[in-house]
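Following up on my earlier thread - several people asked me to post the actual chain instead of describing it. Fair enough. Here it is, all 223 residues.
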Amino acid sequence: MAVTDEAIEKIKGMIVSGALRPGDRLPKESELAAELGLSRNSLREAVRALSLIRILDVRQGDGTYVTSLDPQLLLEALSFVVDFHRDDTVLEFLAVRRILEPAATAMAAARISEAELDALTEQLDALGAAPSVEELVACDLEFHRGIVQWSGNSVLCSLLDGLSGPTTRARVWRGLTQEDAVSRTLREHRAILGALRDRDAEAARSWATVHIASVEQWLRSTL
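Reply from S.P.:
Thanks for posting it. Predicted structure:
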């Protein structure tokens, strides 16, 4: 395992130094192994590990390439890891979301288009006053994703997208057990949209914080 770790570090070093750039094809396995002073087996294991986290792309019959290293691609690994969360860590995920998402919402206030705001409003209108919990949660995920993508920060957007999974079940359970959860969520969504239409970043930040904190507070009360 230590030999594989060494191989990973050496390939990482080539990418970080710029010797290998996004889209570059790696030298042939035998050549790269000799250049790095590694066995072909350890190099092969390193390549396999780096392909799992989207650093390298192994193309059968063509070779191995450095990926685009786009944040959204690299952070796919985060989503995979996050799926293994334990139920007792959901509050921690919500706390991270409460820190990051209001900031992203505030950033979106200056960038989100009127067309997107209209689309989000139509989405809420289509739900009606009494949607099912499942419909509301699906809309909630798309609603926040639609806003966050206008933050202008692809890393922040990808992080929040990866963190959304663990909190989905909590949001469904809240909708099923808390009497006013559906109507409250709809009111908070409209308040966030109102602040965004006014281009009021601080109001948008505040409403996003209230919205996420309400789920967090409810969950704390049930534990």
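The CA atoms of residues 60 and 161 lie 30 Å apart. That should answer part of your original question.
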